[in-house]
Amino acid sequence: MKLPSPAKLNLFLHITGQRSDGYHDLQTLFQLTDFCDTLTFDINEQDSVSISPDILTLPTSDNLIFKAAELLKPYRKYAYHGVDIVLEKQLPMGGGIGGGSSNAATTLLALNTLWQCGLSLQTLANLGLQLGADVPVFVMGTSAFAQGVGEQLQPVELETPYFLIIKPDCHVSTGQIFTDKHLTRDTPPIKISHALTLGGRNDCLNVVIKHNPEVNDAYLWLKNHGDAKLTGTGACLFLSFNNQQDAERLRASTPEKWQAWVCQGCNLSPTHTALNQWIEKNKA
């Protein structure tokens, strides 16, 4: 089975409070995109999970793909089934576009089918929450208004513009951002109708650019061309366009020191589309 594993953008990110356990309450709009990694899954009969190629900066035991597979092992129909996974990486690490969480969700969705686990999407999302707050939105597979730590999801139909995504050459530490004493933690909650019509801001932006001059430089450059936004707590910035040509034109003029991609928003995850096609094809 070969599945895409998409990026997400946070169209806004409000932090509405801090919990006693250290986690933060938030509100956000998750926009799924057609910018994807690709994962290939081959079942083996050695009860082993392998991932290739190796990511030098990430031990296999810390890889969310591996952790997702291990989470599903107790639910397999056949206990001797393992899996060999090949990851074709396109999404930048530490960018705030959910690459690791998306890979974990794609793994849960794929192995739920291949290992014949028979779990519901909600059960998979609940398992995924153990791996990270962004995993459930990728499991459920729709653009969504999110609350709580990001796990309380309400599917929404969003416009599907084209986006220019820029990644400065730096890795933003989520932990550093959420522990910064200057982070805004008291933004008043808004209703979903407000979120869909008026949007909002990213409460992490000022802290991210304070700690990361490269992000600040890219933000100032992109801001000259429109309503530049930061996604999540990562390094990636984005700008929306009504058509692909305008997005590609600006990408072509992006300074070479930054990575840049053009993608389109979507309301149904490419993972779900491809998985449903695989299931239909293999029914016989």
UniProtKB/TrEMBL annotation:
Q: Does the keyword Transferase apply?
A: yes
Uppermost EC category: transferase
Physiological role: Catalyzes the phosphorylation of the position 2 hydroxy group of 4-diphosphocytidyl-2C-methyl-D-erythritol.
**Recorded E.C. number(s)?**
2.7.1.148
Q: What is this protein called?
A: 4-diphosphocytidyl-2-C-methyl-D-erythritol kinase
Q: Name one Pfam family in it.
A: GHMP_kinases_N
Question: Where is the chain membrane-spanning?
Answer: none
Where do the catalytic residues lie? 8, 134
Among the GO molecular function terms of this UniProt record, one is: 4-(cytidine 5'-diphospho)-2-C-methyl-D-erythritol kinase activity
Chain sites annotated for binding ATP: 92-102
Similarity-based family: Belongs to the GHMP kinase family. IspE subfamily.
The record lists the catalysed reaction(s) as: 4-CDP-2-C-methyl-D-erythritol + ATP = 4-CDP-2-C-methyl-D-erythritol 2-phosphate + ADP + H(+)
GHMP kinase C-terminal domain boundaries: 194-257
Alphabetized, the UniProt keywords read: ATP-binding, Isoprene biosynthesis, Kinase, Nucleotide-binding, Transferase
Domain GHMP kinase N-terminal, first and last residues per copy = 63-141
Pathway per its UniProt entry is: Isoprenoid biosynthesis; isopentenyl diphosphate biosynthesis via DXP pathway; isopentenyl diphosphate from 1-deoxy-D-xylulose 5-phosphate: step 3/6
